[in-house]
Amino acid sequence: MHHYPSMFGHAKEDSVAGFVVFLVALPLCLGIAIACGVPPVSGLIAGIVGGLVVPWISRSALSVTGPAAGLTSIVLVEVQTLGGINPFLTAVIIAGLLQFVLGVVRAGRFAALVPSSVIKGMLAAIGITIIVKQLPVAVGSDEGLSTMLSQHNAGAVTIALVSLAILYGWKHTPLAKLKLISPALVVVLVASGMAAALSSSPTLALDARHFVNVPLGGVGALYAALPRPEWAAFMSPAAWMAGATIAVVASIETLLSLQAIDRLDPLKRHSPPDRELLAQGAANAVSGLLGGLPVTAVIVRSGANVAAGGRERFSALVHGLLLLGAVLVAGPLLNRIPLACLAAVLIQVGLNLCKPALFTTQIKLGITQLLPFAFTIAAVLALDLLKGVIVGIFVGIAFVLYENSKRAVVAVKDDAGVWQMRFRRDGTFVSKPGIMSTLDEVDDGETVVIDGNDEYIDHDVKEVLATFIEDAEHRNITVTVRGIDLTHASAGGGH
Question: Rounded to whole angstroms, what are the CA distances from 198 to 125, 335, 362?
Answer without folding.
Answer: 36, 16, 45
